[in-house]
Amino acid sequence: MNTRPKVLIGILFATVFFSAFIFNTNASQTQTAPTSAEGAELYKQRCAVCHDEAQDRVPPLFLIRRRSAEDVMQTLTTGVMKQQAKGLTEEQIRQLAIHLTGKLPGEPIRNLDANKCTGAAPAIKFTAGDWNGWGRDVENTRYQPKPGIKLEDIPKLKVKWAFAHPGAMATGQPTIIGDRLFLTTEAGYIFSLNAQTGCTYWVMNAGSAVRAAITVAPMRTANKSALYFGDERSAVQAVDAATGKLIWKTKIEDHVLSRITGSPVLHGNRLFVPVSSFEETAGRDTKYECCTFRGSVVALNTATGKILWKSFTVQDAPKPFKKNSSGTQMHGPAGGAIWSAPTVDAKRGVVYVGTGNSYTDVETGHTDAIMAFDLATGKVRWTNQLMPKDNFLVGCRQPGVGNCPEQAGPDYDFGSSVILRTLPNGKQVILAGQKSGVMYALDPDNKGKKIWETTVGAGGALGGIEWGFAADNETVYVPVADVSGAARKPGITALKIATGEKLWHIPAPAAKCAWGTARCLNSQSAAATLIPGVVFSGTADGNLRAYAAKDGAIPWSYDTAQAIQTVNAGVTKGGTLDGGGPVVVKGILYTNSGYGRLIGQPGNLLLAFSVDGK
Hints:
The chain is 8% helix and 30% strand. It is mostly beta strands. The chain has a domain of 87 residues: Cytochrome Bc1 Complex, Chain D, domain 2. Strands 10, 11, 12, 13 and 14 form a five-stranded antiparallel β-sheet that branches. Strands 1-37-36-35 form a four-stranded antiparallel β-sheet, with no helix packed on it. Strands 2-3-4-5 form a four-stranded antiparallel β-sheet, with no helix packed on it. The N terminus is likely disordered.
């Protein structure tokens, strides 16, 4: 499973709790409460076995204590811990949250309307230099050919403005169209900002956490442009880009543990949306009938939100196959979540996805695979399973006990978007990066047959290639996480696309964290971004760096975890760089800072850099 989704995250479960999200300023969450005796007992009964000796993707208790009580409550009610909290009352969940965080819930949200823009908002104007969606283009290259900034200007980058996220931490990635910036937040609010100044045009309540980047496009049937995004309740929404008003909303998956973590991709009048889940987290509950979720791609009409087709990754529907060691019925096959944005190949009429691990011992040929679906019908054109039998549930300590697979896999998802690139000779290749630490090149003209593979990291449940890489027509630049292990190789590697040859490798500098030594790592798991001559890549200690594309030299770095004055909420701190990567538009570099859910430190910053801060 991928870093981003398999973590303690949830969605807003009721209006009374939704209003409790706050900005992470120096003044926030200062009120503390004595540890609740009831909460302590509930923790001992339901949580301690995993969090006292945390492994893999289970966060340790001290990291949970950094979060707000509201964030913990939503995790227990509608997030990844909802199965573990099943049967608890609202008051018991509140007491457990107080014990876990040492904080009282209930602080009101502040400053949603702070720093409002004066004057009329500029019209939505699409330009060649925009950054639209996750990968900037439908091939998901993460390459900006018209950045408005040159290699020689990089050392002069300084903060132009900073914006404070509401909610537990800063995740996702901004989208910039013309002079408008659109921002998703874990608190469930969508912001429209001025990309030059950071002032706010409008704020919209999406009703649920939104993690992925927004895709923007003109609507063919109306004189307006729409924002398209998926949320943590598996609904896709279209919102008027000029006003923030809802146009349509469509729920695309009914599985109670499903969610949308990857960005939608638009081609023609169709929106292609990936579906993932956190069932592999709930699966460690021996009383839960695991597992029944299957990843899918859903095609929607952009004007109406009507579902045109839905195609599952795991082709066979789950069926009962045995009872677990506690006597609970088990089902399979299951898994194959799609964590990242799909990639469109208009030439061949297909959409590509990378799939996650299997959840059970029931064999399937569609997990840890690259798959091609027909754009028109959703039919599977081909599948290349690069690692079979990667059967994994979070927190399993003993194979075959409870719902744990008998043949436990290493959790080597394809969690990042694949990239379609055209070489100078006209040959096209599919680039795919796995959490095993292996990069692959596949042949789109030969059913995804492997052309080459190159190992760039040691891999692991939190290692290898996590969030994404970037490529021009000749070279792919691959960050590697590798959080733990003696063989870990965090850093960034440049590979020749034609052959897989390593051109250079720069190890991640030693970690240096503004918050201290606890959970201070140099894991390089955030998505990379490329402009001509420069690669931007961040590490878990909060440091964003520019690398010279030719040799990996570092002409610039900035510690995003430090406190800084924001335009909307006073002094605010950033944190870990993980998840979404930086974006570059019109000479400005934008990045979120603070995805500190499993490693590092939570933070709440959106930063904008320009030459000399002008």
